[in-house]
Specification:
Blueprint lengths: L14 H19 L4 H13 L8 H23 L3 H22 L3 H18 L1 H28 L19 H21 L7 H10 L4 H31 L3 H21 L4 H21 L2 H30 L13 H8 L5
Helix pairs in contact: 1-2, 1-6, 1-10, 2-6, 2-11, 3-5, 3-6, 4-5, 4-7, 5-6, 5-7, 5-8, 7-8, 7-12, 8-9, 8-12, 9-11, 9-12, 10-11, 11-12
Length: 355
Amino acid sequence: MYVPPRPRREDDPWFALRLGLCVVASFAAMAWLNPALGTMVAVLPFGLLAGQRKAFSFRIIAAPIMFGLVIWVMAALVAVVRPTPALLMLVMLLLFFVAFYLTRRTGSGVGMLILVAAMMMSIAGMKTPALLNVFRDGLLLGCGVALVINPLLYLVVPSATREVHVDAPRPAAGHHGAGSLIRALVVFGLCFWFYAVLPPSDIILAISAIFPLIFPTRQEAFAEAVERSLATFYGAGAAVAVLMVMTVSGSFALLLCLVFVVTFLFGERMINGPRSASVYQFATSVAIGVVATVLTSGSPSTAVIGRIVLTLLGSLGAALLIALLDRVFLAPIQDPDDHSPHPAIQRWKWGKELM
């Protein structure tokens, strides 16, 4: 799994400012459009923009189009096979395996898009067709907002460098098929739990489980789970601070100022923080996601506690299960040059992150 390097101030001194403006514009769009799934409109443009490095590239435009296309295809596929639950589950298991295999074999992030889309659409579609349409339309709207906002922000707040960042993905060292099958079965079991027991509102549990599983070794899965959990506490704390201030004044302008400050500060830590850049990126997603959820549901304590608990259960539970299954069924593997795609493992091994 390829992880973008930490953003560099000399390449993009206004990186944090651009992220802050993105969240402000997303909240403004959410208030104006008033969608059924407002949280996606608030979070998705930031998530797509925060992974960009260096100068503007066609990826800024291509990423929301590609994700929207994958969402649309998955929703259509689920709608077709939904009347036969056994067929739906078989198709989803196959898609999970293909997505993990693609990621392990090539290191590409396309597999992550397939996993997220397939999981969300199948969970929503298994409940009711109406819910499938709500999730599909909410995600497509979030992609549309990102398609408008993110290129404009690069036009208004350009980077200092003209160099376009080029990804350098690397395949996993081994166990492409067997490792993918184990991870696909774990994700399928989690989805089956949703199909049978859990409500769709707890879908963050499933999404949190994907991120540790996408990494090739159990050490990296644990590192990702720990960092995701830590980021959840950071983001939840920031969300609580915003909501406490909002109890004094419910001004929408004040809300925009607060989410800008939170995003800007986390964006600065992405550049020079002691943790991986993804920790502060995910913390921002948690913070703005919780705030947006509270604005649409009116249950602050439930939103904060639920986000923390479900993230911990999803990420740490998935990492523990994968560690057990890998230890039982797979021989240990190691990259020939001891490479690891995870920044936390890089700091542990070499005392610095690879650029």
